[in-house]
């Protein structure tokens, strides 16, 4: 039986003994070059194996990539404050200034107000968005997946002049397991993590990559050639029972 406990503000649970990884299967129809962002930051031990020589150059045929990592310690990620305030491809904050000011401008705690509003007003629906969906599309459709929740949250925060960035993470407790996207905002000089989907405890999240929006943190990018991804397996396990997360306390992502 899974037991839940409340932990002090800012506590990171079981990150140092967590284990994460993935298995990617590519069907390559034309010799290809790919860039992967699957490596967990701050891992003390990790391994990457491939079924072909010359990676990241992939020959025609089926190619399997397997990654595994354990033991994590905090690793600072520097993001320019101005960069985290500017509009980006999927976060057009300059177009939602009026909406954000009307909805949240009078709040004493605008970040928590934004994250709660996004959680309450969006429906998590697989297949409701695509590669070109931005935060305004998500606002109008009132549905999406984690990247859409993150984009809308980051966009509204930036529109309120709050620096915000996104982070791709491994997420113990997420079901079904997948690469997950969350938001970090700069509060009193510290980057604090928020998950408007509320699908996984933030204390166990493990950072992969950080950027302005999903365009900066895609787990796979085809640089040349042609391929598909018919199989994808991801695992993320935290030692012990998962902690309780009220999604309002301040948590720092390692």
Separation, N- and C-terminal Cα atoms = 28 Å
Uncertain residue segments = 1-13
Can you tell me the CATH topology of the domain at 83-216?
Answer: C8orf32 fold
The radius of gyration over CA amounts to 18 Å
By DSSP (H or I, 4+ residues per run), the number of helices equals: 5
**What structural class do the secondary elements suggest?**
alpha+beta
Q: Could you say what the CATH architecture of the domain at 83-216 is? A: Roll
CATH top level class name of the domain at 83-216: Alpha Beta
Categorize the overall geometry.
globular
Major pleated sheet: 5 strands, antiparallel
Count of β-strands: 11
Roughly what percent helix?
A: 10-25%
The ordered H/E elements are EEEEHHEHEHEEEEHE
Mean pLDDT: 92
Strand percentage lies at 25-35%
Structure characterization notes:
- With 254 residues, the protein is α+β, with helices and mostly antiparallel strands.
- The chain has a domain at 83-216: Roll (C8orf32 fold).
- The chain has 5 helices and 11 strands.
- The protein has helices at residues 97-104, 110-121, 135-141, 146-159, 214-217, and strands at residues 19-36, 43-50, 57-58, 61-72, 123-124, 143-144, 164-170, 180-187, 190-194, 206-211, 220-237.
- The strands form 3 sheets. Strands 1, 2, 3, 4 and 11 form a 5-stranded antiparallel sheet that branches.
- Helix 3 (135-141) links the parallel strand 5 and strand 6 (143-144).
- Helix 2 packs antiparallel against helix 4 (146-159) and helix 3 packs across helix 4 (146-159).
- The longest helix has 14 residues, at 146-159.
- It is globular.
- The model is unreliable at 1-13 (pLDDT under 50).
């Amino acid at each position: 039986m899974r037991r839940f406990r409340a932990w002090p503000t800012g506590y990171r649970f079981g990150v140092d003994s967590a284990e994460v990884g993935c298995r990617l299967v590519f069907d390559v129809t034309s010799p290809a070059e790919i860039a992967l962002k699957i490596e967990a930051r701050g891992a003390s031990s990790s391994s990457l194996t491939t079924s072909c020589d010359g990676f990241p150059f992939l020959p025609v045929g089926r190619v399997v990539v397997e990654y595994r990592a354990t033991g994590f310690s905090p690793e600072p990620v520097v993001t320019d404050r101005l960069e985290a305030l500017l509009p980006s491809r999927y976060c057009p904050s300059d177009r939602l200034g009026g909406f954000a000011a009307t909805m949240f401008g009078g709040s004493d705690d605008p970040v928590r107000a934004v994250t709660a509003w996004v959680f309450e007003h969006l429906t998590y629906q697989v297949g409701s968005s695509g590669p070109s969906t931005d935060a305004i599309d998500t606002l109008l459709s009132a549905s999406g997946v984690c990247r859409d929740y993150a984009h809308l949250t980051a966009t509204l925060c930036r529109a309120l002049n709050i620096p915000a960035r996104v982070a791709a993470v491994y997420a113990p407790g997420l079901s079904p397991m997948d690469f997950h996207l969350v938001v970090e905002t700069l509060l009193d000089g510290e980057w604090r993590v928020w998950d408007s989907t509320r699908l996984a405890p933030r204390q166990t999240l493990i950072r992969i990559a950080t950027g302005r929006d999903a365009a900066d943190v895609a787990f796979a990018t085809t640089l040349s050639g042609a391929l598909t991804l018919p199989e994808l397996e991801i695992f993320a396990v935290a030692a012990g029972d998962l902690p309780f997360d009220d999604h309002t306390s301040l948590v720092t992502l390692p």
